[in-house]
Design goal:
With about 325 residues, the protein is mainly alpha-helical. The protein has twelve helices and no strands. It has one domain. The longest helix is centred in the first third of the chain and has 48 residues.
Length: about 325
């Protein structure tokens, strides 16, 4: 009898020990995930801090990030061998991603952080629109309706505050491109790891932008310039912390947390960024009532989408 009690007591302690280890790693994974989401929101702040125009900002960011990834992932033996055909296709997707970042930082330069991030919220609508077209699947009416609600919120800001029209147009272009390149990435993610895809994508982006840079500088009447010391500091933060480290944090979180939870959490990116813009730059003082009305509609749409996806996920889990 005493032996049985001792054995059950030992088993209970062992289970508690393993539960604590599991809870520790899950807690660590959630911290890593939300740190990555916060850093994604902080990227917008850096877009305003760095004085370079949007094209040069993205070129330097891609150059620093891609070189760093080649060094880190080669040393860690995380880069896989891929065919020349795949390299060419990934480089093409990298160009789309590059144009997405240029238009995103352009929205910040032409308007402000809050407006750029509000426009970024429309990425869900464009994903719901382009995903069925590119992957030849059926449309989801609920996602399209919620996306149209976001567009309505952006229209209210656009209609009643003429100061931000150029920034809103750039932000919407950014959202369209930002919806397309992750859809294109899915076919590659089935055949290679994220480190390989990201490294070749950024490398393709920087090579494509290097080729296009003379035309870009000519069209926008700019000249090539080296970053000043303060720009170098923020570029390194953008490249090493908000790009490379944030990528590793989200990748580590994915080992413990489902992709569903990760994708759902990234809906908080615009909210983090806007709150940071309010706290650091006091952008709330610059914005009119139309912005808050439009943003409220967008936040309702994002919240409804999160609830809808969460419920559908629970339904799938309960059925299985």
């Amino acid at each position: 009898m005493e032996r049985k009690k001792f054995k059950s007591h030992w088993v209970a302690h062992l289970m508690l020990f393993y539960f604590r280890i599991f809870a520790f790693f899950m807690k660590k994974a959630f911290i890593q995930l939300h740190t990555a989401v916060f850093l994604a929101g902080f990227t917008a702040i850096l877009g305003r801090l760095i004085a370079l125009n949007e094209g040069l900002l993205v070129w330097w960011r891609l150059l620093i990030s891609s070189v760093t990834m080649w060094i880190l992932f080669s040393a860690g033996k995380r880069l896989q061998k891929i065919s020349m055909a795949d390299i060419g296709r990934i480089a093409g997707v990298g160009l789309i991603a590059t144009l997405h970042w240029i238009s995103f930082f352009g929205a910040i330069k032409y308007a402000n952080i809050s407006v750029a991030l509000v426009c970024f919220s429309s990425i869900g609508f464009f994903t719901a629109l382009f995903e069925p077209l590119l992957l030849k699947t059926s449309f989801r009416p609920a996602e399209l309706l919620l996306g149209l609600l976001v567009i309505a919120g952006i229209y209210i800001i656009f209609r009643f505050d003429a100061r931000y029209k150029a920034g809103i147009i750039a932000g919407l272009i950014s959202a369209i491109l930002g919806a397309i390149f992750p859809i294109c990435n899915r076919q590659f993610m089935q055949r290679m790891n994220a480190e390989t895809l990201m490294t070749y994508e950024l490398s393709g982006g920087v090579l494509a932008l290097t080729a296009l840079m003379p035309f870009y500088l000519h069209i926008f009447h700019q000249r090539f310039q080296l970053p000043v010391i303060s720009d170098w500091v923020w570029l390194l933060v953008l490249s090493w912390i908000c790009s490379v480290w944030a990528f590793q944090l989200s990748s580590n979180a994915l080992k413990k947390i489902s992709a569903f939870t990760v994708n759902l959490s990234y809906n908080l990116e615009p909210i983090y960024g806007i709150l940071l813009a309010f706290a650091i730059y006091h952008e709330n003082r610059e914005l009119k009532t139309s912005f808050y009305l439009g943003m409220s509609i967008i936040l309702v749409a994002v919240a409804l989408q999160m609830v809808r996806v969460w419920r559908s996920r629970k339904t799938v889990v309960s059925r299985s």
